[in-house]
Structures are given as C-alpha cells and as structure tokens.
Amino acid sequence: MNVFGVDIGGSGIKGAPADLDQGRLAEERFKVLTPSPAEPEAVVASVKEVVGHFGWKGPVGLTFPGVVVDGHTRTAANVDKGWIGLDARSLFAEDLGLPVALVNDADAAGLAEVTYGAGKGRKGVTLMLTLGTGIGSALFVDGVLVPNTELGHLELHGKDAEKHTSSAAREEHGWNWHQWAERLDDYFAMVDGLFSPQLIIIGGGVSRKADKFLPLLKPLRAEIVPAQLQNDAGIVGAAMTAAKLA
Ligand code: BGC
Q1: By C-alpha distance, which of 112, 104, 50, 96 is closest to 76?
Q2: Domain containing 44: what range?
Q3: From ligand 1's centre to the CA of 152, what distance in Å?
C-alpha cells in the first residue's frame, strides 16, 4: 500500500508516496525550502505544493518538530511560536481537502525504524534519538510508541540538553568529532541511566556519518546503532500514521 508522507523540517519540507509493504519511498521525494519565518500559513502553502506536485488524493501524514497531541501542536522550540496551541491538523486538512495525520518528527522516524529498520523485531525498551537542529526522541516498549517524550529538553549541565549536544550545536561551535563525542557521552549516559534501553538508534542527517562519532563514544549498557532509513524515516513514519486513516 502507498500512503503519502511529508517531513516538515527546519530547512526543508520533503514528501513522497511511501510504499508501506517495503518501508521505503515509492517515488523520488520532492523538496521545497521551509519558509522563513516558518509561520503556520506559509508552511501549509509549502506542504500543499509538495502534495500537489504528485497530484496526491488520499490520506497524508505530516511530521512536526514539536509536541503533537490529538492534532494540536503544543510546543515550538525551533519553529515559529504561532504553532503553539494550534489545531494544526484541521488547518492542514481543510487546506489540502484530504484526511491528515500529524505526528512528532522523531516519533515518526522512530516508528519507521522499529518497523522496517534498525529496531525491527526488537523487544524491550528501544530509544530513537535524532540529532539535528534539535534533539528528538522516540521511546518504544516492545515496538509500541510512548509519544512526545521530548528528551532533547532534559537539563544537562544546567542547560537545555539539545543546545549543547545537537548536530547544529556541533556545527555552530566548530567542534571536531572527538569534542562532540564527549558531549554526547554525558547526554547518552543520562538517558541510559533514566530509561535503561536495550537499544539506542541514532538518527538525523548526521547518522550518515555515524562511523565518525559512534566509535568514539564511551561504552553504554545499551547497544547503540545508526538508523537505517536515514533521511526517509520521517516520510515513511508519517505515512504509517496516515495509513490508519485509510
Ligand atoms: C523538539 C522536538 C523535536 C526535535 C527534533 C526539539 O526541539 O522539541 O519535538 O522532535 O526538536 O526536531
């Protein structure tokens, strides 16, 4: 079955029909730049362009980089504050004229990874962490998601953890892989201690370069592996969420 997924990120809004039998994109994805400022109306127009590019008529799954409860966006750490408290699902559904599912971006990526990728068939507690502009988290128990865990905002050394641990922080400060790995050590030790996961999956664009930093990390009790679906995980996970509407 093919279902449409759209990943709304800080720099790009990308979408494609996803093949949910195979767990991969059914067609090459189409991407537009995220409008700046990323206000709701502007983002809705961009999503419409992406969906319209494929002439898609059917359920659409969308990711959002903040807390999403029952279609309402509740937080907006790295996007326009106009999203806070918005019935975003209704806004998208009315504008697209299609059924819409809305899910946190890391939760979507995690759903795709535990179903088709690095966490497939794993029992117990699995934690997906996406290292990008922020840090996203998705927590699973026997493959079942506990949504909106927001572990990027745990306090570390008196600060919001993602501020000095995300991939964006590494680029901003010009840290080399060793310097970044030391910061990741502290963060991973904290989440390992809090949740005792059996498996930690590292996602986000930088997971493509996992061989540069994962071998530098101090050993954890949890096994730690890179994501397998990489950049497509958000689209596939969003489509999975929308498949339930069909
Ligand atoms: C947001 C999360 C999101 C993560 C990755 C954080 O700042 O609070 O909801 O999953 O960034 O985009």
Answers
A1: 104
A2: 2-105+233-243
A3: 7
